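Input record (one chain):
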Amino acid sequence: SKKVRMAYLAIVGSHHINGVAALHSELLKTSVFPDFYRINRDMFTNVTNGVTPRRWISQANPSLTKLITDTLGGTVWLRDLSQLSELKVNVNDEEFCYKWRQSKNANKERLQEWLFNKMGIRVSTNALFDIQIKRIHEYKRQLLNILSVIWRYRLLKGMTDDERSDVVPRVVIFGGKAAPGYHIAKLVIKLINCVAKKVNDDPDLDDLLKVIFVPNYNVSLAEMLIPASDISQHISTAGTEASGTSNMKFVMNGGLLLGTLDGANVEIMEEIGKENLFIFGTLAEEVENQRRRVRDGGIQWDRRLLEVIQMLRDGVFGVFPEVHQLIDSFVHSDHYLLAVDWPSYLDAQALVDKTYKDEGKWTRMSILSAAGMGKFSSDRSIKEYAENIWGLEPCARPGPIAVDTYALGEQIMRNNPSVGRSNSLSPLDIMSPLSGDIALERLSPRDRQTVVSYSPASSPFF
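The corresponding structure, as predicted from the sequence alone:
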């Protein structure tokens, strides 16, 4: 049957091709569309994704926003995220580091309360909060994560009380949705929940390990989960993730990153320093060679992974026939290199535990991570799109302008006698929560004129 190559069609109808992260943009030229690149090299460019700090720091994390604003002397950093770099000078300031930890703990307490009220699960904020929230897909490797959780459970069950006393407690949180027809992804969700039930119901472990799959994950939940993370996982097989943006959101909020050198992880590492994150796994240029080795039977399977697989086949986490389909999905054809990356993944996890025990070092890494994230604002992305792809010139807004909100409120009440004095106008109804100003383009012509009449005569706009 005839098929349409949709990506080819899109390229032919476009004037620029963007891979949304430096690594992926390079892969488009060398591996995915090399013929098109040879025909027209000027079409191919890169603008790395970004996220808005107004939502993902200011709205999602009020305590950290206040600390940064107080430290930098204002909110300009929310419009110029490069100013975060000025936080680096405080990395050895004991008072600042204490406030930084207090902010993180406040967010962990907020999530702790939500988990108990909504899911009935008690967790300790002394535990390391380990979060992976994203679309469920084989290439994103939530399966690798939950297999490592099973190994952690296996180790804990074999420890003495003295050995357990030295273990870093961990709360492992998953969130995400699977496409309706994606059977394997749905099985991953089922396995996570089966492991969670077994682990959370085990009285032996107490608070040493909790596993949680957050239901109905969405952006609003992300605003609560992201600020609470100690570590977040971005562990896709190298070369498969175009960019990712949750990695940016987590690191902006002072969460450390555990990941592969894939997507925007590469550029995050370049900005914050490789010493401030935990990297493991096969590199993008080595992936095809490793897949060939897997097909040829040249991979030596790690004993620990084989033990985990046997635990699943033995029904330790519940008996459901589909678990064998899930195991077979990577045992017989390990396209996403779970077995290849497993040893280095466990090594990285062990380093996370070791580092977390050093509170001072962890705090410094957290501060330096957030302070290095200035590049990843959507303001920078949009500016690069406008300049390098769309060829647009900036157009000044007609506002915002400062207004006398008290006098304006009095005028509104005079025009609306039914509005009682006790129902005074909320500043949030008429002004920006960031600047305390009003943007005129948000208003009707009549309201605009009203606002102008209450603007100081010195306003540069009139």
